[in-house]
Amino acid sequence: MSTFPAQVRMVEVGARDGLQNEKTIVPAATKIELIDRLSATGLKTIEATSFVSPKWVPQLADAAEVYTGISQREGVSYPVLVPNEKGYERAREVGVREIAVFTAASEAFNRKNINAGIDESLDRFAPLFERARADGVKVRGYVSTVLGCPYQGEVPIADVVHVAERLHQAGCYEVSLGDTIGVGTPAKARAMLRAVAQSVPMHALAVHFHDTYGQALANILACLEEGVAVVDSSVGGTGGCPYAKGATGNVASEDVAYMLEGLGVDTGVDLDALIDTGMWLSEQLGRPTASRVARARRS
Ligand code: HMG
Ligand code: MG
Question: What is the CATH number of domain 9-298?
Fold first, then answer.
C-alpha cells in the first residue's frame, strides 16, 4: 500500500514561471488580477514575480508594479525570485518578505541562465542570506536541472545533492528541486529525491516538475510516496525558462489539485476556483489551457 502525506502545500508559480516565458508581455494589471484570483482559491504560497535583470527577462520588468498592486491576503506568502543584491534591494523597496534564490546542478545551464557557475552563484547569494536574516526575510531555494540539462545532458545525482545541501545550509527554509526541461521519469525522480533527502530533511524539500514529456504527474506521485509534501505547479500549465532550450510548461495546478483530492490528500485549495482562474488566464493569453482536468470539466 502506498502512503502519502496527509497534507500537501501547493506552491503556485504561474505568475512567475508561467509569465516569464510568454512571447508577448502580459500587462501588469492582468498579472495582478491573476495573483488576486489565485489567492482567493485557498493557495497559501503564490510566487508573484522576479526581480531579475529586465534585459534578461523583459516579461517581468514590471515586478515592482505587480508586487505593489496585489491585494495581499493574510496567511498567504508571495515569494519573488531574486538573483543578486540589486534584485534584493529592488524587492525590499516594495516590502517583499520572502525571496527565492535559484541556481542549478548543471554548470552549463547556470552559465546560460544567470551568467555564473554554480560556486559563483552561491557566493553571489551569500550577502543575500546575511541581509535576509537581518531583515527577517524568508529564503526559498531552487536547484534547476535535477533530472537533466539541455546543454550538459545527464546530471549526476551527487551534484543535485551537493547544491541542495549547500542552499539548505546557507539558510533556505525550503529547497525546490526543479526538472527544468521535464525529462524525468518516476523511478529517476524517486531516486533523486531519496538521495537529496539523506542530506536535507524531507520537510524542507519541494518538487518542481515541468511537463515537457508528459511525466510530471507520475513523477509527483513517486515523490509523494517518498514523503515530499510541497509541490510546485502552475495554473493552466503555463511556464518554461527562456534559457532552457525545449522546456515547456509546468505541471498544471488544476491537475495536481485533482490528483491530490483523489488521493485524499488535503491541499486547502478549491479545485473549481482554480479551474475558473486557469480558464480566465487562458482567455487572457488567447490560447487553450494545458490543464487536462480543466478541459474535461469544461467540455
Ligand atoms: P549579468 O549580465 O551577468 O549581470 O546578468 P550584470 O550585473 O552585468 O547586469 C547586467 C545588467 O542588468 C546591468 O544593467 C545591471 O544593472 C542589470 P546595465 O548596467 O547594462 O544597464 N541588473 C539588474 N537590473 C534589475 N534587477 C536586477 C539586476 N541585476 C542586474 N536584479 C543576472 C546576471 C543574474 C542579473 C541575469 O543573468 C539574470 O537576471 N538572470 C535571470 C534569468 C531568469 O530569470 N531565468 C528564469 C528564472 S529560473 C527558472 O525559471 C527555473 C525555475 O523555475 C526552476 C526550474 O524550473 O528548474 C526557478
Ligand atoms: Mg521552472
Answer: 3.20.20.70
Q: Are 253 and 271 in contact (CB under 8 A)?
A: no
Tell me, using a 6 A CB cutoff, whether residue 104 lines ligand 1: no
What DSSP line would sit under 103-137, residue for residue?
EES-HHHHHHHHSS-HHHHHHHHHHHHHHHHHHT-
Atom 37 of ligand 1, residue of closest alpha carbon:
114
Active site (annotated) includes residue 241: yes
pLDDT tens digits, 62-97: 999 999 999 999 999 999 999 999 999 999 999 999
Contact 194, 207 (CB under 8 A): no
Inform me whether the pLDDT recorded for 227 exceeds 90.
yes
CA distances from 205 to 51, 80, 102 (A): 23, 18, 14
Instruction: Name the pLDDT band for 1 (thresholds 50, 70, 90).
Output: low
Contact 39, 73 (CB under 8 A): yes
C-alpha cell at 44: 497559501
What predicted TM-score, i.e. pTM, was given to this entire model?
0.98
d(CA 169, CA 51): 24
